[in-house]
Amino acid sequence: MTRKRWFIGFAVLSLLVGGGVAQAEEPTSWSVGTRTWVTSGYTKWNFQGAGINPISELRWRGTDAVIVEGNADFVEERRGATPQYVLMMSLGGGKVTDGVLIDDDFLLSNRQGRFSHTRSSVEDEGVFYVNADIGWRPLSWRSRNSQALGYLDVFVGYQYWREEYVAFGITGNLILGPGIVINQGAPSSTKVITHDYTWHSLRVGARTEVPILAGLSARAKAVLLPYNHTELQDIHHLRSDTLKQNPSFSSEANGGFGFQLDAGLSYQVWKGLSIEGGYQFSRIDSGEGDKFTRALTGTAKDRLTEIIVERGGPYFGLRYRF
To answer: pLDDT at residue 15 above 70?
Structure first.
């Protein structure tokens, strides 16, 4: 409920800011931009089995990636009438350069009775996403003290998001009983686990630009992901004697909830050219679903508890408006 209240407050604030200035017509316009997003990620997968929740949990921590994004906007002219229609598209991608995988198994629910704990390094694969939105601009205005156009847009759209990680090496231990501990290990050159996550999401959101002074303005965007289709493909490379390899495990879920926040400043440096900087954060929670173990002898079905992915960090970019 706290997140929902925050978003409602954001929308109300945007309306109040825009309501104190005069409406302004905007001609049909294109804008294109590029953005470099310096991110750190966190992804968690856990599932139930044998009455234990969770029975296993894998956490990918500090999956750093520098993501380069390209984006484009189109605003349709509607002289003498509102709203103006808005089309938006962006795509981005980057390579994961760092991180650690922590793999825990439990004998009891609520993460009690841990009997296996291992760590692996993450040194490969990356992040890719595509957003496509259509919306309208119910409010735009001009300020006496700024060159920038103020506006409020609301929109709906689609998001495709993919993150893939590869873990190498193992350090850790296996606890077989009181005082019975077996060290687990594999060289750092050994490929251990590959995880491929994909999300297909419905997007509902709002964005605003508020002129401040001269060419300086504040920008913010809030997006809800109220419905998501989540998939995971898992390959356990060291268990080819008991598990299939494409994949070894898989999970899928429908529903869940996610959100994205983006806030920063923009400054017009020359005619239609502006620079921007700020911070962006994204989070998706799959909710419950199905988890499949694909053994050589057959497939077993358990319950997926959750898949959560978070990614955030500062960004810097350029934008040109035609």
So the answer is: no
